[in-house]
Amino acid sequence: MSGAVRGVDVSSWQHPGQAEIDWHEVVDAGYSFAMVKATQGTNYVNNWLSRDLDDARAAGLLVGAYHYLEVNVPPQDQAGHFIGSLIGQVLEMGVWLDFEPGAVQPGTAQMALTGFLTEVDKTRPGCGLYCDLAWLETLKAAYISIPRLWLADWAPTEPHHGQLLWQEGQKEVKGIAGPVDVDVCDNVRALNIPTAPKPKPTAATTLPARPKLDEETVAQGPDDVP
Q1: Got the DSSP string for the chain?
Q2: pLDDT tens digits for 129-158?
């Protein structure tokens, strides 16, 4: 893994008892990026989202954000909820969909996945996909296009499936309370991830006008999934 850099992915689970993350210690421990859970379904926003993104970025980490998909909730609504939570955020590591649908029909899961990615791409292009190896094979068999892959595979050796990011397992990381998922990016030069939403069209452009996404006020709820 020559040239590889490591990062962490966090949610409210990494804040037991409202404990803060010391992102400077994370950097000192050798980590270069952080992926932060933003939303789940349509009713949950991680109440540490803005704080973790801002503090991690201030400590010198590249940052990204992800949404946990609930397959039985309209994917377009979930996409709007996710994008609304990220208004004003510059994300060097881009946006991602956490796809862990569980025991559902593959067709149902695939429709939710493609609906979400299509909607997010209108505002935050190039949304990547987090999934495990079993779902990756299912999606490939169904010819589902995956723009960027974040593969969860806790095998002892690095998988080779064209992934941009690889979640290699959980570790204790200085600055974070308890174990945290650790990820590897093999080649930062390959990122080339858009850092901000597409610019709004103006009268000087020929781009078609798009409806404005208003930031949503959402109720806080339990962070059910790390």
Answers
A1: -TT-EEEEEE-GGG-GGGPPP-HHHHHHTTEEEEEEEEEETTTEE-TTHHHHHHHHHHTT-EEEEEEE--TTS-HHHHHHHHHHHTTT---TT-EEEE----SS-HHHHHHHHHHHHHHHHTTS-S-EEEEEHHHHHHHHHTT---SSEEEE---SS---SS-SEEEEEEEE-TTSSSEEEEEEES-GGG-----SPPPPP-TTS-PPP----PPP----------
A2: 999 999 999 999 999 988 899 999 999 998
